[in-house]
Amino acid sequence: MKLNDTVIRSFKVAKVFRENQEKTNSIDFSTNGEKLISCSEDDQIVLYDCEKGTQTRTVNSKKYGVDAICFTHNSMTAIHSSTKVDDTIRYLSLHDNKYLRYFPGHTKRVTSLNISPIDDTFISGSLDKTLRLWDLRSPNCQGVMHLQGKPIAAFDPEGLIFGAGVNSESIKLYDLRSFDKGPFVTFMLNQEKECEWTGLKFSKDGKTILISTNGSIIRLIDAFHGTPLQTFTGYSNNKGIPIEASFSPDSQYIFSGSTDGRVHVWNADTGFKVCVLNGDHPNSVQCVQFNPKYMMMVSACTNLAFWLPSIEEE
Q1: Is a pLDDT exceeding 60 seen at residue 9?
Q2: Which of 146, 189, 239, 296 is 20 to 30 A from residue 47's alpha carbon, by CA?
Q3: Close Cβ partners of 30 (under 8 Å, ≥ 6 residues apart)
Q4: In 3-state terms, what secondary structure has residue 181?
Q5: Neighbouring residues of 170: CB distance < 8 A, sequence distance ≥ 6
Q6: What is the model's pLDDT at position 66?
Q7: Which residue pairs from 76-81 have beta carbons closer than 8 angstroms and sit at least 24 positions apart in sequence?
Q8: Could you give the CA distance from residue 54 to residue 15 in angstroms, rounded to a whole number?
Q9: H-type helices in 210-286, by residue range?
Q10: 3-state secondary structure of 179
């Protein structure tokens, strides 16, 4: 089944999970699309089975808090940032709820965490104005980049370069093999006046970069030339929260939550709004992602919803 406007508009909530008392602040799919992990401000980590549509495990991180969670290449382990005690990144075994390793170094809260699509490298960005490169096998930081502002960062789909958004006005691209030489290109954009950049993602085809904000605006830029391609607006964010914007796996559609509890969808090429999906979320939807392998979408406020298309394949 291919994604098109008709299929997108047919998406309906198939299942709702009400495990959390506080809002979900981060979600991530495993690479094979079979599992989903979420974390929330009530310090809970929840694991879901996407094929069966069930919740399989809940882990509490009461001591350190939890944010910016992502699977490693083994879907029974994850890394996450901390919201209490210190700003160490933690590597967790979901199988037996034990920490496998700690990654200390950041001196302020970690706001961006992204794992390489090809190996055990990961990258973190923090309010301490540094980006750090790590390897899951070592607690020692592999490299530090000192920047002029708060960074957000992500790997490209090939895992060869990573992009850093700095100070809500520039995007720097680094070659992983020679990142210590500095960025090989910097794209300057108009600095956001009304909001801050809060997230950065490469499209699956590697051609575009999506920038989320804590306002009601999303930017799409060309990954090779830094040219602004689209600006997506018309969703509400009156609370200044870092609403996540995501690509569909075919890079053709952009999804975003909103503070009115609905999910907004745009065509990435034309910038045209395809639809607004209402999943009866009682609170702000901060997290929205499309499954990388299956025809399903997930959105989360305090509740977490699994969405499926309601039209049959022709």
Answers
A1: yes
A2: 239
A3: 36, 37, 71, 75
A4: helix
A5: 186, 187, 188, 189
A6: 81
A7: 78/28, 78/37, 78/45, 79/103, 79/113, 79/115, 79/122, 79/136, 80/26, 80/39, 80/45, 80/113, 81/109, 81/110, 81/111, 81/113, 81/124
A8: 9
A9: none
A10: helix
| 3-class SS letters over 8-66 | HHCEEEEEEECCCCCCEEEEEECCCCCEEEEEECCCEEEEEECCCCEEEEEEECCCCCC
pTM for this one? 0.95
The string over 53-78, giving b where at least 16 C-beta atoms fall within 10 Å of a residue's C-beta and e elsewhere, is eebeeebebeebbbbbbbbbeebebb
Instruction: Please say whether the beta carbons of 231 and 252 come within 8 A.
Output: no
pLDDT at 181 over 50: yes
Model confidence pLDDT, tens digit, residues 103-125: 999 999 998 999 999 999 999 99
DSSP 6: H
Strands 44-49 and 287-290: unpaired
Q: Give 240's DSSP letter.
A: -
Q: Are strands 218-222 and 228-232 parallel, antiparallel or unpaired?
A: antiparallel
d(CA 173, CA 200): 12
Torsion-angle region of 261 (φ positive above 0: left; ψ -120 to 50: alpha; else: beta)? left
Specify whether the backbone of 206 is left (phi greater than 0), alpha (psi in -120 to 50) or beta. left
Banded pLDDT at 163 (limits 50, 70, 90) = very high
Retrieve residue 241's tokens. Answer: 């929260």
Say if CB 286 and CB 301 are below 8 A apart. Answer: yes
Q: Give the largest Cα separation in the chain, rounded.
A: 54
User: Is the separation of the CB atoms in 254 and 275 below 8 Å?
Assistant: no
How far CA 90 is from CA of 77, 81, 194, in Å, comes to 11, 6, 33
